[in-house]
Please model this.
Amino acid sequence: MIFDLPGRFWRGNLHTHSNLSDGALSPAETAQVYRDAGYDFVAITDHFRAEHGFPMTDTRAGHFYSSTGPELYDVRIEGDEIAVHCSPATKILLTGGHPGAEGAQGTDLTDCTFPLHLFRNTHCRITTEDATGHRAWTNPIHLGRS
Model:
């Protein structure tokens, strides 16, 4: 049996909701219930929906990016190229729905331009990485058919 193996096993819940979503208790009360039950951790995974008081943005157009630290200030298609303006990065990559990639490496990169020829009939994505290894990335940018 797996629990007979040596080492520490952690008891936790990776998915529960508070009354800021569709749960019954406040986040603090929810955490206390799990603490009192002997859990080592709990992840409160509330639904960020307008009916629960969270501001909503329609993200279907792809006008946002994800990050673990770096910032993307501007990503713009200019003719047959894509231009990136970002916080200081050590890598800026262009990848997508085609084998291959374009990339730049250095120190304190903040601007880069790549040709789009590899991705003209599919999609691409920009990813930046800073000196600490943190990344920022765009949603897929659909280029369509030319």
The radius of gyration is 21 Å. The chain has two domains: 12-52, 65-142. Residues 65-142 form a domain with the Immunoglobulin-like fold (CATH 2.60.40). The chain is about 5% helix and 40% strand.
